[in-house]
């Protein structure tokens, strides 16, 4: 090959570039987050998510996937470590009851560890929609989240993991290699790595989960113009190691150049991608 380029947490390099976190969260919510909507829809349809579903979303970001599950009648809880994205998720998921009297009162947004999201009745679905398979250490980080989240789910509950598809099926892979090249001096966790087709199965096995099917979903990244593409991709955090190793201007310049082959005559940017998901079951 995370390509929505999707990185909802700070980079694991230890050094975090200075950014306007509130603006980044808004760019994520308004530009990038929607790129994985086909993935969310495919999973919810396969699992028949509805009023009987109690869903825990790990790395929920600004809550679009949660909102889609809630619109199907599910009771949703979202967990993330990014306060600015969670503020946007609360606006979406926890509306004023006087204005939205039919909104479920048991929807929740939790900042921090999945362990803080425990509820009286166990979750029936756990989702980890942030795709792994492009950053060193991302599989281990997902494993840590599952170690805390799986005990909150009921027996036989569905746990959904997502990952990047093969690099040859992901146009955004070539753009991510720009980040890898610029971040090369760091050579640590948080830098780019090639996708392995068994990433999801290995994570599930380490978490003690039983695979119960998988699928692939086309999730093209489409942007109104090159500026929107740069802002959207940077909002994922995948380019933070590159910014740390070089500087913001250099990253912006090389990112814009890498996007040029995918810019159409009308100025829009279009990059076909394929993502993979695995459905696993708790013991």
How would you summarize this macromolecular structure in one to three sentences?
It comes from Streptomyces atrovirens. Keywords: Methyltransferase, Transferase. With 283 residues, the protein is of the alpha/beta class.
Describe this structure as you would to a colleague.
Keywords: Methyltransferase, Transferase. GO terms for molecular function: methyltransferase activity. By secondary structure, the chain is of the alpha/beta class. The chain has a single domain (21-281), classed as Vaccinia Virus protein VP39 (Rossmann fold, 3-Layer(aba) Sandwich), CATH 3.40.50.150. 35% of the residues lie in helices and 21% in strands. The protein contains 10 helices and 9 strands. Strands 3-2-1-4-5-9-6 form a 7-stranded mixed beta sheet, with helices on both faces. A two-stranded antiparallel ribbon has the order 7-8. Helix 4 links the parallel strand 2 and strand 3 (108-111). Helix 2 (37-47) runs parallel beside helix 3 (64-71) and helix 8 packs across helix 10 (248-259). The two termini are 31 Å apart. Mean pLDDT is 87; it is low at 1-14.
